[in-house]
Specification:
heterodimer; A: 618 residues; alpha/beta; Rossmann fold; seven-stranded mixed sheet; B: elongated
Chain lengths: 618, 311
């Protein structure tokens, strides 16, 4: 294909204006996410937007470390907004970029599914980070399946160097083939640091806006025509792929060959260094002719891919017998062990000696809400009020387990309020129905369901856990913090005014650290007929500033070992070595305690006080 | 690449000839601990050392939930060429644990023939381990002692590094003591370690960190892994001793005095009380009741009593 020749080499671009960029050594250590950001910057991206989500968050944070004159980088209220911002910039003729976690693409999918019909003007690249193994997500869906659905190329780097190179290449592919391109990462790639050879920034001049309603306005008459263009695009992409740098055939043993992708490739290289390997840096479209040729060159073929059998199913459609998911799991994150076991089961590797059994066990150490976390009170009260609680996505999901154990459902971003509404309308629940949602999640996708609840006159209570930060992902700003991604001051959304404007009659702000008032206010809110919103008003103890007040201490002689304070699940509280009538007394780790006073408030014997005030203990 | 003085480079080369290294599998160091202990700092130091020696290096962590007081780990692999970002089970050359139970959790990753286990014996007991309200309850914190572990791994160096750091004047430098211990197990010249530490720690803590590093190095030189049983950690008292334990009945509720305020029902940690149809508190599950006496103490009407069974 002649046009393909126009695609620039992936590294060492000519380098136009490089002003303002920090001079970097030839090879530097970068996280996969930082390498994706570097690739976007080198490709000359001008507008970039994201909503934070593990494991993708650091991409946009890293992009924001490049000069503002080079790239406008922003947090958006949600992933769909972020993608729309990037689409707008691409329409306007510059290279544009959005990043998100796998489930974020569900939110942005509506925009993607239409934009794929339209194509691009300036290059449009979306970095999507999957989470195999579900380290910090609600599912482990495989973004590669979006390739066939949206008919957009899915590039799959296997280490930080490829993350940079492929992201850079993605912009060229996008413009060359008139398509959005997805660069797909996974937790392991995103959060692994490895050495990267960087290049210079090579920003193409902005293009003219193209006035072409037949291509840019997706009404039925236009879209029908564009669908044909998509099919033609798939054909051209497939033809170009055959000789592209995305496909690598590593010749090895003729006995068996392995088709693999992404980080699975790195495990394969470790376990089966002598195998013939077809490494696919792209999972849609697939270079079927090359795959056929590879399969013909070896006696037996295995497909080793993390999560869904995307490549395996495609190879089967060629009528080629392959093994894949028969030996390698469809769930969870791969590792060297997974690959070794699979190859042993397949009869390719001889089982190694079994590791000795150590007979040493440790205990579980699950993540916890921080000492002094202002979310604690709401769930303490909800549990004692026997509420049916629809939870949402954020740190507070940790209140679903003991000791708070006060959340009944958690589905996805922003779903709590509408789920509460549905439960209320079902009329089957006698308990009070409450939705709990954080500030960032509320702005992400909690506002339309709140309006819906008022509109449909639901009798529910919404607890807005406003800690004024996107806490779970490490403290990112959002429209409710009054600061942008680059730390500039901006308008701060007034939650209370906005909630009232939606038509909520009962709105109250309350100090999260006052247990009695929170109980009282929640009772009132629940008694209110209709939608009531209680705003919990205390900042996150970690971000943007680490809060540390005078620590508290337990007067051991007054502690009656009732352990009422242990119900808080505070990491600063544990048993002391002393006992009362055989029961364990409690102590406070003063280094961890921030002095929130919640334990002091629940103490049945007033045994807890501020260190400075507490009488010296024996 | 940034290099040190020529002398250091020669020393590094002498330790491991490049030609030999090319054939080698990567060196694997697994660093584990609890959020906020400085796991990442140790792995950054090694990564930078490798960069300065022009070795391929991969450093893999998982961000997100782990910072909320959970278990934290960092896989570090270096050599001529590193593929997998994670260390296979049984292949860690060194396991560095900043907390005792975390070390035990990851022990299966240690190479059973040649691995070195370096551990801080300090114990961070999570509230999750203090869940039982029963009299005489003990935490579910791991109970294996240093002596027991030393008998099962090839090389074990365990000490209360947190206390050592506190004695040196900076309790937060425990991770640097472990780094000093680690420096004796990896082939990098001492000066390289010092240069990299100076580069990575905050300026005003350089002195404290270098002292902690030296203390860790010296400690290993002075200790024989075969004699590790002498370094028994202060294992949390597993006391089956109930002390002044008083056996009590389940809550007895005086229905005539109960005004139905529900305080006991709401605050019962085991949720074994409920309000019956006469709006009087009632015990629904005596087996679940731990006799913690929260209801007795909170009842404003003195309607609840847990009788002494020995009286």
């Amino acid at each position: 294909m002649s046009k393909a020749a126009n695609i620039r080499p992936v590294t060492g671009g000519a380098g136009e204006s490089n002003a303002g960029a920090v001079r970097r050594p030839a090879r530097e250590s970068m996280m996969g996410n930082e390498a994706i950001a570097r690739g976007a910057w080198e490709a000359g991206v001008r507008v970039a937007a994201a909503y934070p989500g593990t494991p993708s968050t650091e991409i946009m944070e890293s992009l924001a470390t490049y000069p503002a004159a080079d790239v406008h980088a922003q947090w958006s209220t949600n992933e769909k907004v972020a993608l729309d911002v990037a689409i707008g910039a691409a329409f306007a003729g510059v290279r544009a970029f959005a990043s998100m976690k796998h489930v974020g693409l569900n939110v942005a999918a509506d925009s993607l599914m239409s934009q794929t019909y339209i194509g691009v003007n300036g290059g449009l690249v979306i970095a999507v980070c999957d989470d195999p193994g579900i380290h910090s997500s609600q599912n482990e869906q495989d973004t590669r399946l979006f390739g066939a659905l949206a008919m957009v190329p899915i590039l799959e780097p296997s280490d930080a160097q490829e993350a940079l190179d492929f992201t850079r290449l993605a912009f060229s592919i996008s413009e060359e083939f008139d398509t959005p391109v997805i660069v797909r990462s996974t937790t392991r790639l995103s959060h692994t640091r490895s050495l990267v050879r960087t290049g210079e920034r090579d920003a193409p001049a902005p293009r003219e806006f193209i006035e072409n309603p037949a291509k840019n306005v997706m009404i039925p008459g236009h879209a029908r025509v564009r669908h044909h263009a998509l099919l033609e695009r798939e054909r051209k992409l497939t033809a170009w792929l055959a000789d592209s740098p995305l496909i690598r055939w590593e010749k090895g043993s003729a006995e068996y060959g392995i088709i693999t992708q992404a980080t699975a490739y790195t495990y394969v290289k470790e376990v089966a260094p002598d195998a013939s390997i077809l490494k696919l840096g792209v999972s849609w479209p697939l270079p079927l002719e090359q795959i056929r040729e590879f399969c013909n060159s070896v006696q037996r073929v295995l497909v080793i891919e993390e999560l869904e059998p995307v490549i395996e199913n495609a190879v089967r459609t060629l009528g080629i017998a392959v093994d894949g998911k028969r030996f390698f799991p469809r769930t969870g994150e791969f590792s060297v062990e997974t690959i070794r076991q699979g190859l042993e089961q397949a009869g390719i590797l001889k089982p190694g000696p079994a590791l000795p059994e150590l007979a040493i066990k440790s205990m579980p150490r699950p993540p916890l809400l921080c000492a002094g976390c202002p979310h604690t009170t709401a769930y303490l009260a909800l549990r004692s009020l026997d509420a049916r609680v629809a939870g949402d996505i954020g740190c507070y999901t940790l209140a679903a387990v003991e000791p708070l154990k006060a959340i009944d459902t958690t589905v996805c971003m922003g779903s709590s309020i509408a789920i509460a509404l549905g439960m209320a309308k079902a009329g089957t629940q006698e308990r009070p129905i409450v939705a709990t949602i954080g500030d960032s999640t509320f702005l992400h996708s909690g506002i339309p369901p709140l309006i819906d609840a008022v509109y449909n006159q639901a009798d529910i209570t919404v607890v807005l856990l406003d800690n004024r930060i996107t806490a779970m992902t490490g403290g990112q700003d959002h429209p409710g913090t009054g600061r942008t991604l680059r730390g500039e001051a901006t308008h701060r959304v007034d939650m209370e005014t906005m909630i009232r404007a939606a038509g909520v009659q009962w709105v109250r702000k309350i100090d999260s650290y006052n247990i009695a008032s929170v109980h009282q206010a929640l009772r009132e809110a629940i008694r209110h007929k209709g939608v009531s919103v209680l705003i919990m008003d205390r900042p996150c103890v970690l971000d943007p500033v680490k809060i540390k007040g005078p620590p508290l201490r337990v007067r051991a002689e007054a502690c009656n070992a009732c352990q009422a304070c242990m119900n808080l699940g505070c990491p600063a509280l544990s048993w002391s070595e002393e006992r009362h009538e055989g029961y364990n007394k409690v102590k406070i780790d003063e280094a961890a305690c921030i002095g929130c006073t919640l334990c002091m408030q629940v103490c049945t014997t007033d045994a807890i006080g501020i260190v400075a005030e507490a009488p010296a203990t024996a | 690449m940034t290099t040190g003085t020529p002398k250091e480079v020669i020393t590094a080369a002498a330790l491991t000839a490049p030609s030999a290294r090319a054939q080698e599998r990567p060196t694997n160091v697994l660093i584990v601990g609890v959020g906020g202990q400085g796991v990442i700092m140790i792995s950054k130091v090694i990564a930078l050392l490798c960069e300065r020696q022009d070795l391929d290096v991969k450093q893999s962590e998982v961000h997100g939930m782990s910072k909320r007081g959970g278990s934290v780990f960092s896989h570090l692999r270096f050599g001529q060429r590193v593929y997998s970002p994670t260390i296979p089970i049984g292949e860690a050359d060194v396991l560095v644990a900043l907390e005792w139970a975390e070390g035990l959790r990851w022990l299966p990753f240690l190479n059973p023939e040649t691995g070195t286990f370096l551990a801080d014996t300090q114990q961070l007991i999570p509230p999750f381990s203090c869940r039982s309200r029963k009299p005489g309850a003990v935490t579910n914190y791991a109970r294996h002692t240093v002596a027991e572990v030393a008998g099962k791994v090839p090389n074990c160096f365990a000490t209360d590094a947190s206390r050592m750091a506190a004695e040196l004047g900076n309790a937060r430098a425990a991770n640097t003591i472990l780094l000093g211990m680690l420096s004796t197990a990896l082939d990098f010249p001492e000066q390289e370690w010092l240069t990299v530490i100076e580069q990575l720690v905050p300026k005003k803590t350089i002195g404290a960190n270098l002292r902690a590093f030296a203390a860790g190095r010296t400690w290993v030189e002075q200790h024989d892994p075969a004699a590790m049983h002498a370094e028994a950690p202060a294992v949390f008292p597993a006391a089956a001793d109930l002390g002044d334990y008083v056996a009590r009945s389940a809550p007895e509720i005086n229905a005539a005095w109960c005004k139905g305020c529900e305080i006991c029902v709401k605050f019962c940690p085991e949720r074994c009380l409920f309000m019956n149809d006469r709006q009087v508190a009632e015990l629904k599950d005596p087996d679940l009741c731990t006799r913690c006496r929260v209801c007795e103490r909170l009842c404003p009407d003195f309607a609840i009593t847990l009788h002494r069974l020995d009286a």
